Amino acid sequence: MYLVENPVLQRELLVNLRMRRAFVLLFLYVALLGLVVLAAWPTQERLDLTQAPREARQLVDLFFIGQYLLAGMMTPSFAAGTITGEKERKTYEMLLASPLRPWAIVLGKLLASLTHIAALIIASLPIAMLCLPLGGVHPYEVLAAYVSLLGSVIVFGAISLTCSSLFKRTAASLVVSYLVILPLALVAVLFWQAGASYGATRLAVSLTVFPAVSLAITALLLTVTARRLLHPPDVGSEGKEVVDLEQENREAVGLVIQRDQFPDKLFAPPKRDSLMEDGINPVYDKEIRSEIFSQGTLMLRLVIQVSMFLALPLMAICLFIIPAWFSWYVAYVLLFNMLVGPVFCAGAITSERERQTMELLLTTTLTPREILLGKLLVGLRISTVLTSFVLLPVALAGVLEQQYWNATNFWVLISSVVVVYLTCAFTATTAMFCSTLCRRTAVSLMASYLVIIILFMAPLALRTLTKTVFQEAVWESVSDAASTTSPFAAVFGMPFHSQFVDPDLAEGRFSRLANASRSGDWTVFWRYLIFVVLWLGAITTAMAYALRRRFQVSGR
After folding, report:
1. What pLDDT, in 10s, does the model give residues 59-111?
2. Separation CA 546–CA 101 (nearest Å)
3. Is residue 496 helix, strand or coil?
4. Residue ranges covered by each domain of the chain
5. 362 Cβ contact partners less than 8 Å away, ≥ 6 residues apart
6. I need a labelling partner for 104 at 20 to 30 A (CA). Which of 31, 161, 221, 241 fits?
7. Quick count: other Cβ atoms within 10 Å of Cβ 235?
8. R_g of the chain, CA atoms, integer Å
């Protein structure tokens, strides 16, 4: 019942693995890894295998770290919608009323969602084996890397499954899963890199301690999820949870959102108890005052609490202790907006299609511009306010820390804030554009993440390859041109001058870190600004045209 004859597992495997996108994704994944290995293959006619060639080590590290981050980003897309999908399809209560035990449901959902990821990882093994003849890498290291990768994927899947049981919408489950998983993935990558000089210790930890810890965390999360299915609080009225705001505030742990107080009313204002004034966009007023994802404020509370918890150590180190690392904190703010920004706009139009109210909306007296502007401003307002909470320490550091008082660093500070808010507009508008083109919110959200990751992160990956592998002038020019679309390149490309003003701290290794001034070029900032303005103008025009065509179809 749990594995051999589990109907949930059998049904999910048949649905997932027989879809055309499963074969397309497998082909693209293996082809991409193969192209990376082919491009990074050493060009020397002879390699001295007795001294562990540096090129071989770089190739293997790049292969595994890239695959690890890809698996970390792909796992929530398969597992975060396993239970919320049942709620959205209104089959949640039927599943709970079946004779299946909660553990059978949980194991079936988890294994079915991870089977595709496991197939991708196993398919990449022959490509990894091609790197062994280059020398510098022991087969046991490859084994340890794959054991760590599979253990991490299982933990990530369990986290996504738990989040899926807590929320009603896949979008909310997906963003919380990413907020938890990506920091864990980055910590694991840093640990792997830091243990490069301690090969035996890293090998032992990867083959013994890490699998045990992964299984323990997975068992704990699955137990919590199974108990929630055994005593579900979100049944009744087709699986919709009835949210009592007063009871939610009384039982909330940690942050409590008061909708009628500042600053909470900036992103979650209370519901209207009076008539709407003249001149107000009804779409905007309805969207901003509705229940976020029909789930109260649970998703917002988790997003704020997790983001602030992760920001505290980064804020202390990057903004005050070592100001030369200022850009790393801004990069964290950008990464936070990448995860959170699309969530509030990716379902703007698709939710109308899913609720079958799209035609009703199009037959109102509202123009396409008013509909798009109302829905876009709601998502942009919420994501901008949430991002501002994380960005606030930057302004605080600019006031308290003397490192930012010189002319160059002051303008870098202001320009970094501008880059962050440009990115807020970029992510929200891009998600809105994907919502206009797609029919389902989950597909729209994944398409938004795909476009944003390609435009923001692909230039950084190309630059890394250029510095470590290609090392040719033509590739440097290509990576510089591609960096126009990345806010991370804009933030790290600006100049920054750092030095101690306290003579007692001006000696030792720590002073070398803090005095690491960065030479840069302001053109990267202006190129990104121009790119965002052109991008927003182009996709806004395309959205208005698409919605205007819908009006023509409706006979207006």
Report:
1. 677 778 878 888 888 888 888 888 888 888 888 888 888 888 888 888 888 88
2. 47
3. strand
4. 7-230, 323-553
5. 547, 550, 551, 554, 556
6. 241
7. 15
8. 25
